[in-house]
Amino acid sequence: MCIRDRISSSTFLLEIDGCSPFILKAIRKRYRYKRLLQCQDILLRHNIPVSKIVYAEEDRRLFVWKRMHVICEEKIEGSTLLHVDLTHEIIKDMPHLFFSLHRIKSTLWGKLNEGGRSDSLFFYLNENIQQNLRKLYEYDQNFPFALVNSSVDYCKRFQREVEELNSFSLCHRDPSRANIILDKNKSLYLIYTCEMGYFPPFMDYYMAQIYLLEGNEAKMRLFEAAYMQGLTLEEKQEMKIAQPLFKLFVLTQLATRIPKVAHRHTAFSIVEKEIERILT
């Protein structure tokens, strides 16, 4: 047996003679350990493609110098979408990965480890949008501060529609190209599931368009067409009503995540301009 390679500061490739390779994760925070186990259990019970956990121990003896819990899971043989050309076939398959998640419902919203929230989803969205817009202005003071103020009234236009939502879907909440694997059989798998929670599915839709397809209009239209084919008439109507608010939420969230380094300035500028377009 050998730990052949370090994938990140707390994730390792584990190889055992005569066995398929495994991924060994060392997790410091107990709540993240519990949330990851909970997510994997839900996904496997609903036959959603995800790597299977073969060992989990709430025990800090293995990485005693870091005091971390341990999860060992099967390694999916394939590549993340970071290293794959997004062909039309792959883009058309993407919505089905999200549909399988979004059919899992709850009457309460929030992250899985929160046990479900019954307070105002609109307040959560509005507060996060305002905070992120202020961060955006701090980062780029050419961004019109008047839009930070006007966004309050803009968001209130959607308050009634959001507060009338009474069913929420299981969402990945971080569907970047680094968090989806294409295996050797051309099947898609979700990884990094510990941020999952129950939210309106429109959130994953806009995250997928912006995070996965990176603003490529042709690919976004292809994804949209495939996605819309899988929605019911009621789901399409709900999405149409609240669409601008959820898109603004995702864009402002992304704007604060883009690393402040030179080669990402173009991406930041594109996101910033789209936010301005929505608010003006």
Written description of the protein model:
With 280 residues, the chain is an alpha+beta fold. Helices cover 47% and strands 18% of the residues. It contains 9 helices and 12 strands. The protein has helices spanning 30-45, 88-102, 121-139, 145-156, 159-163, 202-212, 217-229, 233-257, 265-279, and strands spanning 2-8, 11-15, 22-27, 53-57, 69-74, 78-80, 105-106, 110-111, 168-171, 180-183, 188-190, 197-199. The strands form 3 sheets. Strands 1-2-3-5-4 form a 5-stranded antiparallel beta sheet. Strands 7-9-12-8 form a 4-stranded antiparallel beta sheet. A 3-stranded antiparallel beta sheet has the order 6-10-11, covered by helices on one side. Helix 3 packs antiparallel against helix 4 (145-156) and helix 3 packs parallel to helix 8 (233-257). The N and C termini lie far apart (60 Å).
Give me the strand/helix succession.
EEEHEEEHEEHHHEEEEHHHH
Structural class: alpha+beta
- Widest beta sheet: strand line-up: 1-2-3-5-4
Give the total of beta strands. 12
Please estimate the helix content. 40-55%
Task: Describe this protein with a few key phrases.
280 residues; disordered N terminus; alpha+beta; five-stranded antiparallel beta sheet
In short:
The protein is α+β, with helices and mostly antiparallel strands and 280 residues long. The chain has helices spanning 30-45, 88-102, 121-139, 145-156, 159-163, 202-212, 217-229, 233-257, 265-279; strands at residues 2-8, 11-15, 22-27, 53-57, 69-74, 78-80, 105-106, 110-111, 168-171, 180-183, 188-190, 197-199.
